[in-house]
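Morning F.,

Quick status update on the modeling queue. The single chain you submitted on Monday has been processed. Sequence for confirmation:
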Amino acid sequence: MIVRPTTDADLQAIAELTSACNRALAVSENYTAAELAGLLAECSSLASIRRQYAAFTSFVSEQAGTVIGVVAVAGDEIAQLFVAPHFQHQGIGRRLVSVAEAQIRACGHAKARVYTASAPAYYQPLGYVETERRRCTEGPLAGRTLVFFEKVLEDNPKPN
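Structure tokens below.
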């Protein structure tokens, strides 16, 4: 497995990956049909992914030429993290978070931030501390609880 910066050629694979992840989350998080449809509308087309990822610095995890994970950074925030459902629980997400944190640190930020509606338990073992909870007010998950986290970034992190 390699982690590398995202290229324009990866965007279709990212659209397919995020769609597959959102379908899996719909089951585990009991999303309504409307919530899933809204999420898929945001990520299933090449045009929507191209618009989103134009604002991010992003990296993909690739195995045997196939994109199996993606992380996107905006300023000091991990804006997106997706790992293909059949590749989860293998350390790929941790590796992508580590790369995102290095990018955030390289841009001069001392803390990394992330928020999630679907994976709050994922971030705590990675050193993230919950800072707040609030209701999502817009988008496909309006009304769901968002959990916000921060992590103080070390100057010389230990290798994973």
